[in-house]
Structures are given as C-alpha cells and as structure tokens.
Amino acid sequence: MNKFDLAIIGGGPVGLFATQFAQLHNLNTITFEALNRFGGQVEWLFPNKEIKDIPSYESLSGKDLIKKLKTPLTNTLQPNYRVETIKKEDGYFFINDEYQAKTILITTGLGAFHPKTLPIKVTKTEEKFINYFMTDPTNYKNQKVAVLGGGDTALDWALQLAPMVNSLTLIHRRPQFRGLESSLNQLKCLSNVKISTPYLPKGLQIKDNLLELTLNKIGSNEQSKQSFDNIFVAYGFKSDNRILRNWGLELSGRGIQVDRTMATNIPGIYAIGDSVEYEGRVPMIALGFGEAQIAITNIIAKLFPDKKITLHSTSI
C-alpha cells in the first residue's frame, strides 16, 4: 500500500494549487479527483470564460488557468477516483483501504456536482441533441442552437456560442435574468441571437434530423415549436457534500468548520476552498489559494516540527 505525507481530496483549481504548493515544500502528495479530468467546475462548466479575479492576471480563460496549475506538477494525480471511506490507524489515514496518508486536505468545493436535467421525458435518441456542458463552442459552428436558462452560465455559454453559430435562441422562464446585466446587454446587440421569454420546454421530438422543441408560454395556453441542431441546458447544478458528515467532520452551514489554521475537528484533516465556511468568507478561487498556503504551512509544522519552513517569495 502506497504511503504519502499528504492526500488532497478534490482536483479543482484550489486542489491543484495546493498540490503545487505541497510539491514546492517537498511533501510526498497524492491528489484525488472523482471526475475523469482535473479542473473541477472551472474545467467542466466554464473553460472558455475569461476569469478576471486571479492575482497577477488581468484576464485568463478557465482552461488556461487549469493548464497553468497542472503544468508544473510532478506529484501523483489520481483522476476518476472517488474517496468513500477514511479511517485512522497507527498514525495514518487509510483511504478506501487502498492508500495511506499522514494528513488529509479536503478541497472538494461544494462537493460532487450533477446538472439539473430537463423536467420532461427524454428518449435516448433525443439525448444526443441535449448538452449539459459546453467545453468547445467551435464544435457547433454554423448550427442552429438554443440555450435554456437565465443565470450566468446560460449567458456565458450564449456569448461563447454566438460567434460560431448561425442562430442562437436564449430561452428563459422569466422575463428577468439572474445573470449579469452586462452579459445580457451584449447578447441583445447580436443580430443572430433571439431572446424568448417567458417560456418553458414542454415536449421534444426528432424531426428531419433536428430536435423539435415545444415551448409553452408561462401564464397562457400559447405554444410554439422550434427546431435546433443542439440545445444547451443551463438550469444549474446539484451539489452533494453528505459524505463529509459520514467521515465525522463537523459542518457549519453548508461547509466544513475549520479553525485559523484550516484544521477541522479531526486532528490531521484540513479543509480549504469552497468546502469550508466561516464568518466573512467569500467564494473566490484566489482566497482558496491563500487558504492552501495556510493549511500546508501548518501541515508541514505538524509533520516535521524540526524543519525550517521557507516561505519563498515572502521571505528575505
């Protein structure tokens, strides 16, 4: 059974930065990711979105951020691996009875996430036309597409798709959108974008190799039918953090309760990023990076009390 100084559970941007910082301090580390690719929600939900709140970058895309975080890593990365059980014996945490680690750092964000699906019956043939993720807008060049939803994800996808497609219809159940007003205003200025509100999808069928979508206008019996090459459903995602309670961790609201060192109630287990909650915390990637440095600096002090910790860029 392989032994490690540190096991990081969660391979989103905060988990990747924590892996990088642990590597900088020569901690023998393994990082687990439940999905088959590292990067978390940034990789899966908005890889093409320009992120503007990462220190030292005026703007960079989600996929570029993940690439920069992954490039220098030489520690062990284990994708497609779901941590189910953690138990401690003889100074080590046993993870699924397959790996051993002296300490654990939880960076799971809001937990495993799954898209909210269309609230209507869908056949396997119809599923081929329905997308719950949008990673590369060039795959839909010259198509007729629809985006369903009213939040930032729907508006971001629409903005990324619009330059590639022949036409795009943005469909929302309310006249008002939850996403950024500036994004909505950009879409309103595009000649190939149509905004349809307040409508809900009521039926689907395949017709002439297109997906025909039946829409019902809210508050009336009016219906319309429109056909698309592809539709993108951005109704949000369901997160599941129930497993944290099974591990014996104390929760505060939706997150893990931690102290100033990012330690949990279980000695040897730390947590950072959107998986934790404390007064005044804001859900920003950059804040998670800082929490990673706090947690790993304290982990080193616990594991190697005689070792002098070099703080690198902040040291003279």
From TrEMBL:
According to the record, cofactor stoichiometry and binding are noted as:
Binds 1 FAD per subunit.
- What does the subunit comment say? Homodimer.
Gene3D superfamilies named in the record: FAD/NAD(P)-binding domain
For whether the record's keyword set contains Nucleotide-binding, the answer is no
Q: Which HAMAP family match?
A: FENR2 (MF_01685)
Q: Which Pfam families match?
A: Pyr_redox_2
Give the catalytic activity: 2 reduced [2Fe-2S]-[ferredoxin] + NADP(+) + H(+) = 2 oxidized [2Fe-2S]-[ferredoxin] + NADPH
Q: What is its EC number?
A: 1.18.1.2
What are this entry's molecular-function GO terms?
Answer: ferredoxin-NADP+ reductase activity; flavin adenine dinucleotide binding; NADP binding
Q: Which organism is it from?
A: Lactobacillus rodentium
Q: What enzyme category does the UniProt record give?
A: oxidoreductase
The protein's name is Ferredoxin--NADP reductase
Record-annotated FAD/NAD(P)-binding domain positions? 4-280
Q: What keywords sit in the KW lines?
A: FAD, Flavoprotein, NADP, Oxidoreductase
Q: So what family is this one in?
A: Belongs to the ferredoxin--NADP reductase type 2 family.
Q: Where does FAD bind?
A: 33, 41, 46, 83, 113, 274, 314
Obligatory cofactor(s): FAD
